[in-house]
Amino acid sequence: MHMADALLSPAVGGTMWAATAGMIAYSSRKVRQELDDRKVPLMGVLGAFLFAAQMINFSIPATGSSGHLGGGLLLTILLGPWAAFLTIASVLVVQALFFADGGLLALGCNVFNMGFIPAFIVYPLVYRRIAGKSPSQARLTTAIMISAIVGLQLGPFGVVLETWFSGISALPFSTFALLMQPIHLAIGIVEGVVTVAVVSFVFKARPEILHGALEAHPSGVRPLRAVAAAFLAAAILTGGIVSWFASKDPDGLEWAIARVTGTEALKGPEQGLHRALAGVQGKTAFLPDYSFRKPAEPQNGGVKPEGEARNGDADRLGTSVAGVVGVLMTLALALLAGFVLKKRKQSAC
Asked: What's this model's pTM, rounded to 2 decimal places?
């Protein structure tokens, strides 16, 4: 569901940049006021885990499409909305800058659709009302499944609206929406199942983490090292190896675009801000599409270059390197954000 710049006008992209930047500043202040020191490493490892999990596209049967975990609801349940929003923003910044997953102009939209909506709309208005203050496993499961589905309807609808308001693509509103909503209903169900599994694991092992996020207070006095280590190990394993087996089918957004236009990736304007940001991303994205940079296509009438047979191994190595590097970069950025906020909190005391 990572939007590309080709879908957006500078006016819409810039407005969403400003809105999400303001929300990041406000969230930073809230986190600084509430920050539980032991939550900093949890922000880091959950950001790393989300980065790796989003590399795993799963096929949607009978559609030719695929989806991946959004993760906004999962992080919000475990961290609370403010810390989760900052962590998701960190993940999306790393993905856009260094892996060319999502455009730079579209970064504000992507943070809004995958971070703001689950953290500040779905979590308070749907999840908390169903789960209650002391959820049982049954209420927790129900709350997560309904929230995941609602979130995966609102986020894609945000994509449709932002595209429509931009008015620079040939995607008609009604047709685009009628393709985006059903395919993301299926993705939302899978997101709900995965989120239930992860949250249930934490709920049984350390229920105070969920209560702490729910009530915005420190989550007990027990160290979180074991939980943090488990998420970090899962992130490295997922990004380094499990990512080999991700579906190659287009994701829900690419699939919907292809059904309308006949191509998965639209070509955006080649001048002005679009061109400038594409140039920046071309320089910073050293592992584009989670793989090594590929040489230019040969101009030899389709004759494959020598060594083409080894490309499969190179692709897997590139995916593993991208997965591990991305996990470590996201971990470092989320930890840095947490430590900076912690330091500023101590300075203010």
From this structure: 0.91
CB atoms inside a 10 Å sphere around CB 345: 15
pLDDT at 301: 46
Q: What are the residues whose beta carbons fall under 8 Å from the beta carbon of 270, sequence distance 6 or more?
A: none
Q: What is the pLDDT of residues 15-69, one digit of tens each?
A: 999 999 999 999 999 988 876 777 788 899 999 999 999 999 999 998 999 999 9
CATH code (residue 26): 1.10.1760.20
* Residue 209: inside a domain: yes
CA–CA separation, 317 vs 77, rounded Å? 34
Domain assignment present for 12: yes
Q: Could you give the number of structural domains in the chain?
A: 1
Contacts of 125 (CB under 8 A, 6+ apart): none
- Start-to-end CA distance of the chain, whole Å, equals 41
Mean pLDDT of the chain: 89
Q: 271 is in which domain, residue-wise?
A: 5-293+316-343
| Helical H segments across the chain, by residue range | 10-34, 39-53, 72-79, 81-99, 107-111, 128-131, 137-166, 173-205, 207-215, 225-240, 252-261, 272-284, 311-348
The owner of tokens 């920050």 is 35
Residue 113: inside a domain, yes or no?
yes
The one-letter amino acid at 294: K
